[in-house]
Amino acid sequence: MNHMDWNAYAALCPTRQALDRIADKWTVLILGLLCDGPMRFNAIRRRVEGISQKVLSQTLKSLERDGLVVRTAYPTVPVTVEYAITPIGASLADTVTPLRRWAEENIESILRARRAYDQAEVQMADAAFNSPIQR
Amino acid sequence: MNHMDWNAYAALCPTRQALDRIADKWTVLILGLLCDGPMRFNAIRRRVEGISQKVLSQTLKSLERDGLVVRTAYPTVPVTVEYAITPIGASLADTVTPLRRWAEENIESILRARRAYDQAEVQMADAAFNSPIQR
DNA sequence: TGTAACCGGTATCCAATGGAAACCAGGTAG
DNA sequence: CTACCTGGTTTCCATTGGATACCGGTTACA
């Protein structure tokens, strides 16, 4: 069985569920960090600004379950927990990092399009207000 | 101002919000379709199995707002609405399509890791049950 | 003359998710 | 004694997601 048998466009294909998991902003940011080397829980938390402990914990747990990162706890005082990327996780990181870079490179174009779109919406609302008979 | 000024790791950077929008399963699937040519609403709906009308409508609207697709309504009977990818949308499609392909190529490895993880969890629960003193 | 289906959507409802904040054990530093 | 470090879990609430019903307008079929 090769990968041609899987199809993310099919609702029940496990690929769909996997896509939902990996196409996630936190996943992109966390994997982007870990591919530079192992990191501890709170170190990741400080670097990924705005992530809550709960969501970081959940995301790491599910990345671990999928075999994309490995969690290692050292019996130091206080306990040290290190998260490292796996080879398959690294291959995913190579795939999602361009996504982050695309966002950083094209954000201005997006913001411009948004302003134009919202402006056009306002103008349409104005027109409807000034000649409500057209409703 | 160049793209080096933007940083998705900063909570308030608009790039973060954009990343959240584009790192989405429906966006990946829809852009993957549209880069083969324009498509009508219900045609997309039939190809992206399992998407609801509401979510498709919302996703397309936000893709349009961000300038990634263009919506064209033809006054035919019944009305024909066509969604086409823009050049910048196509560049995003080039970035997210590898994500879908990665999922399709690596799903088996993920499923294997999941089974191993869940199995280990069950064993740990069993051990805890058989010697509860360790709690 | 129904009536069923297609078009491209809204509107409504409820469950699941997301994030803020509190809390936890166990220990250190002041 | 208090405050803070470690790596989380729990609780709560608002936002979101998806299923379903509905909408006007038109066509095909019986």
How would you describe what is shown here?
2 copies of one chain form a homodimer. Chain A is mostly helical and 135 residues long. Chain A has one domain (3-134): Winged helix-like DNA-binding domain superfamily/Winged helix DNA-binding domain (Arc Repressor Mutant, subunit A, Orthogonal Bundle), CATH 1.10.10. Chain A is 61% helix and 10% strand. The first copy, chain A, has helices at residues 14-22, 25-34, 41-47, 53-65, 87-130; strands spanning 39-40, 69-74, 80-85. A 3-stranded antiparallel β-sheet of chain A has the order 1-3-2. In chain A, a hairpin with a 5-residue loop joins strand 2 (69-74) and strand 3. The longest helix of chain A is centred in the last third of the chain and has 44 residues, at 87-130. The model of chain A is unreliable at 131-135 (pLDDT under 50). At the A-B interface, helix 1, helix 2 and helix 5 of A face helix 1, helix 2 and helix 5 of B. The structure holds a DNA duplex (30 and 30 nucleotides).
CATH topology of chain A: Arc Repressor Mutant, subunit A
What amount of the residues of chain A lies in strands? 5-15%
Q: Helix proportion of residues of chain A, in percent?
A: 55-70%
- Specify Rg of chain A, calculated over alpha carbons: 21 Å
CATH architecture of chain A: Orthogonal Bundle
The name of the CATH superfamily of chain A reads Winged helix-like DNA-binding domain superfamily/Winged helix DNA-binding domain
Derived from helix and strand composition plus strand pairing, the structural class of chain A reads: mainly alpha
Question: With helices defined by DSSP (H or I, 4 residues minimum), what is the helix count of chain A?
Answer: 5
Give the end-to-end Cα distance of chain A, rounded to a whole number of Å: 57 Å
Give the biggest beta sheet of chain A: 3 strands, antiparallel
Helix-strand topology string of chain A: HHEHHEEH
Oligomeric state, counting identical vs distinct chains:
homodimer
The strands making up the biggest β-sheet of chain A line up spatially as: 1-3-2
If you average the pLDDT of chain A, what whole number results?
88
- In total, the number of domains of chain A comes to 1
Which CATH first-tier class of chain A would you pick? Mainly Alpha
DSSP strand count of chain A: 3
Shape of chain A: extended
Largest interface: A-B, 55 and 55 residues
